[in-house]
Write a structure and sequence with these properties.
The complex is a heterodimer. In chain A, about 70% of the residues lie in helices and about 0% in strands. By secondary structure, chain A is mainly alpha-helical. Chain B is built from 16 helices and no strands. Chain B is globular. Classes of the chains: A mainly alpha, B mainly alpha. The interface between A and B is small, with 8 and 9 residues.
């Protein structure tokens, strides 16, 4: 695998196609589970693990699965891994298991995982699919952790369960607060993203037509 | 010779947004004075904080949009002052300083400015700010209702309960106050602005005389609430006056629900809208046993686009519905 492709997959998963802030996929766990940062990390890592495994298996089987029954086949594969994760989590981290609640089994129908299976893993080789799963999952984890951190600090005055102060704005732990924080994050992410995109466009444009501004020309000279 | 060329409509009255908003502020002054007299300096502090932070938020937001401070001062239309005042009036005077501050920031920045500023907000900023305060600082908001320092504070009222909540849960006989007490606000517990109904009534009359709002709009809300409450309580007319004189319905009906931006545009639509609002307040109060006025106004604000779609105002010069029907009948006859 060349570095260019690797970089493309990485930046796609984390930034350009960030599942939470750019594609607005997997909204249900994002809104419901980000009341604390720890929940966000837990959910994100669970999804990442399942995403990597299902991407690898689907990529391996991409030539075996008939096109007409591919969605049931994908769901079956994903469900297998979700069951494994559920059992492991229930045994070893029961606290997180109980706080994730119904959203853990619901990963089966999580649109991020189905989306990556459909649009990437069923068309690409195993290594790329595994990397795609890793970076998309990490993008999801980072987004959930950020939202969880903000909501936890403002809503319950703590950071990863560590009490900071007594001041609490219960609004941020409520559902309305989830939508509010989510909206603000999407706006911020897109603002930063489009800023860098514009900068990149300008650079390529200037390089292409050889009209570097005077300040940069002087530097070169 | 100076010739001014301007587009229609050619309005000749000096009826600007600023003008109307100043009228509303004047109408609110009696309620503000009553609140300060009843609850002492603490009420004044709450009001000052909420008004100051509302205006400051709008100022900071305009700076973020790279507008010049001088432009901000010139175009300032006092809507954020009203938002701050109404928000402060709908809070208890015992709330800590950060409640009016954060609610005002939320009300102006999120509810009004993010949607595009004055006239573009989909819900009333003051109402939404109050609901924000209610959700965000629930413990503080519910526990401490201040006693008004005037008149008899009846021992029968439970600590932390307003007259309305005790009426709702135990019936009108448990009220312990006369209707006159409710009207004047003596011995009442509650928000700064909603205790003295006399002050609000003066504001209502002023708004009616200045034609800022039509005088019947709040009346529709109040009557609908009162009659529905009576109906829900087996036609017991003892509930008629307490249902409109207790709680925040008076403040909400006169100042919050009649906001231009968040009420339907045609008059027929307004009548239906206010009637729905009044009925909903009574029904939800009966069902939940708590004060729901701010929530109901918020809920009804969101239905305004539907009302605007159903009841289209007739454009000036266009045939009215009557004329259209006549024309259609004439056409049929001709056939």
């Amino acid at each position: 695998m060349n570095t260019q492709k690797f970089r493309k997959i990485a930046s796609d998963g984390l930034l350009t196609n960030n599942p939470t802030f750019r594609l607005v996929l997997g909204t249900c766990p994002t809104l419901a589970l980000t009341t604390s940062a720890f929940n966000g990390v837990g959910m994100g890592l669970a999804v990442t693990f399942i995403l990597i495994c299902s991407n690898v298996l689907i990529s391996l089987l991409r030539k075996v699965i008939p096109n007409s029954v591919r969605i049931p086949a994908f769901v079956l594969i994903i469900a297998t891994f979700v069951t494994i994760v559920r059992m492991v989590m229930e045994k070893f981290i029961p606290d997180l298991y109980s706080s994730l609640g119904v959203f853990l089994p619901l990963i089966v129908v999580n649109c991020i995982i189905l989306g990556r299976a459909e649009s990437f893993a069923s068309k690409n080789d195993v290594l790329s699919s595994a990397l795609d799963g890793l970076f998309t999952g990490l993008g999801f984890t980072v987004a959930l952790t950020l939202m969880g951190t903000v909501r936890e600090i403002l809503g319950s005055g703590s950071f990863f369960g560590l009490a900071l102060w007594d001041f609490k704005i219960a609004f941020f732990t409520s559902q309305a607060g989830a939508f509010f924080v989510y909206g603000i994050f999407i706006a911020l992410f897109n603002a930063v993203y489009s800023y860098f995109e514009r900068k990149q466009h300008r650079k390529t444009f200037l390089a292409e037509f050889d009209v570097l501004p005077a300040s940069e020309k002087v530097k070169e000279g | 010779m100076n010739v001014i060329i301007s587009d229609t409509p050619h309005v000749r009255k000096r009826r600007t947004t600023k003008n109307i908003m100043l009228d509303v502020i004047i109408a609110l002054i009696p309620a503000v004075i009553a609140g300060i007299v009843f609850f002492g300096y603490k009420a004044a502090v709450v009001l000052i904080i909420s008004v100051a932070s509302s205006v400051a938020t709008e100022f900071v937001y305009s700076l973020c949009l790279k507008k010049k401070p001088a432009d901000f001062v010139r175009n300032f239309d006092f809507t954020s002052v009203i938002t701050g005042l109404l928000l402060g009036l709908s809070l208890s005077s015992t709330v800590p300083w950060y409640v009016p501050l954060l609610s005002a920031v939320f009300a102006v920045a999120v509810v009004k400015m993010l949607f595009g500023g004055t006239g573009k907000n989909i819900v009333n900023p003051a109402v939404c700010g109050r609901v924000f305060a209610f959700i965000a600082f629930q413990a503080v908001m519910i526990s401490g209702w201040a006693d008004a320092v005037f008149g008899p504070v009846e021992g029968s009222i439970k600590a932390g309960a307003t007259v309305l909540t005790s009426v709702l849960s135990e019936g009108v006989s448990a009220m312990g106050l006369t209707n006159l007490d409710l009207f004047l606000g003596t011995g009442l517990q509650g928000c700064i602005g909603e205790t003295c109904k006399l002050a609000l009534l003066i504001g209502w009359i002023y708004l009616g005389i200045r034609k800022v709002i039509r005088w019947e709009y709040p009346l529709i809300i109040l009557l609908c609430t009162a009659f529905t409450t009576v109906f829900l309580n087996k036609a017991d007319f003892a509930y008629f006056l307490p249902s409109i004189l207790s709680g925040g319905i008076f403040l909400g009906a006169v100042f919050m629900a009649t906001d231009y931006v968040t009420s339907p545009s045609s008059r027929v639509a307004k009548y239906v809208y206010y009637a729905c609002l009044g009925i909903l307040v009574a029904v939800l109060r009966h069902a939940t046993k708590i004060e729901v006025v701010s929530f109901v106004i918020l809920l009804m604000n969101l239905t305004v686009p539907i009302f605007n779609r159903i009841f289209r105002p007739v454009i000036f010069g266009a045939p009215s519905i009557k004329e259209k029907l006549k024309a259609r009948a004439a056409k049929k006859e001709a056939k």
